[in-house]
């Protein structure tokens, strides 16, 4: 009997795996039941999104399929420029034309890129052929000898779904390792052949390529993973029909690499390399994602993560496979000590499609009794949530003040009982930035430092206050002043109070869950104001920001205390940048004026400094367009509220027509 059941189940699965056709859907990508193949539907290669992407039964399995100069690329390597994308439904194919370099980004841009000295165009074509797809790549110029084996078509494989999972390459088998492991191999870097594509680019080549003899994220191709395997036919997840993808190469070998060897955030890479002289028909892959006709995306029921106040609107959102048509009735249950009780069940409102999914809405606004609740849709359940009048009283915004902001505090040691979140950091801030430079992360410095300091000079007094930026360690003036202003307004308008942290600015020590009798919000307002005021006092103007000098420091993943050596005057000191930006200066003017009001009685000296700087900025900052005028009106409002001086009120009244 057991064998009969297993046999029947196998037959059902095989029936579900019958050949189906890949067709272009109304959203402009290939679809075959649970298998989706996007071809440059979005563009964010720095985040491993874009290019040719394979989504199988609701899970992204591969992405970033594109021509690259490197075996495993990172966010610092040059990207192509997309010229044209054609969705040809009649031919059932998508064609994308791209080219290297993107000259505007060479030695310039938010994060300057360095392109090898080979300019060419290429076309990627993906065509649906029944139950498989054909991917081809054609170049418009032959590959030079110096880039033989360097240029190739890469498809990145999502590591989080593959660790410990098997692969097959021809007759060779393997398992994706949990950690990046050797052997590695050395090769001549493309940075030995940097092109000259943008004479106006102001990035510093020497600065970008510092540490090149050890490791530099700008150089991604000198030490790389040796191939895990090479062959003609690659099978991903051969053990799982819901995740299995087969790729065959009809032009050259497939090679499998571990991209985590030279990038901590790298992925596994399946690649076909271009020999010297390659031009047309550089790549031809046959891609066969396993298609399961019966697969459906499991419903997801989403309610407010916070919970609900009894008097507010309450709507659960139910996300479905867009092929679902047999809708069920959602049910709301109240959960008590003696079990759960059905409170409401009725048909949901059909909201419609969005992207890959279909949505329903289940409104239970009329339920006001306090307690624990859960929404069910068939077997799918929402998280348990509360309906209560005190739903916003703790564990909501408080988490930012209790954890996030203290952990991000710069120039401090941050402790939480046994844990040290980070040790004393950036005590060597800062040196004056180079001039005429397009640096990284959107920072640039014009022909002048706009202050008394010259490039490379030590700028004293900047090692105080501030929060590290998201994902890295720079201090942007708008982030510092802006966050302090948000917290200040929470205090001023809502009387927000929380005290779970001890902050000692003199000793530079933070103790989480060690109350000190002071409002944590005000202490964080103080932290943001301190860095802005310190910059003004040191430079005689606002700083644009404070940022590390090298790419390797910028990509730093360790403790903040290891970011620099804490010895002023050495090469790893962060740089301080200035700018002439009246719109931003007047934004900060408004914020400082608002901050000054709430700091009175908490730190009177700092409050006075904030107000004095705001007054001066309002007086000296030019206003010659509508955007700047908008920020100046805001500044005048905040200054009037801080001083009650008629001049600021009159300025606002004079702008009634503009407002």
From TrEMBL:
Keywords: Carbohydrate metabolism, Hydrolase, Polysaccharide degradation, Signal
A GO molecular-function descriptor: cellulase activity
Entry annotated with the keyword Signal: yes
Pfam family, one: CelD_N
All residue ranges annotated as the Glycoside hydrolase family domain in the record: 420-654
Cross-referenced Gene3D superfamilies: 1.50.10.10, Immunoglobulins
Cellulase Ig-like domain boundaries: 298-380
Keyword Hydrolase: yes
Signal peptide: 1-19
Annotated GO biological process: polysaccharide catabolic process
InterPro entries registered for this protein in UniProt: 6-hairpin_glycosidase_sf, 6hp_glycosidase-like_sf, Cellulase_Ig-like, Glyco_hydro_9, Ig-like_fold, Ig_E-set
Family, as annotated: Belongs to the glycosyl hydrolase 9 (cellulase E) family.
Name of the featured protein: Glycoside hydrolase
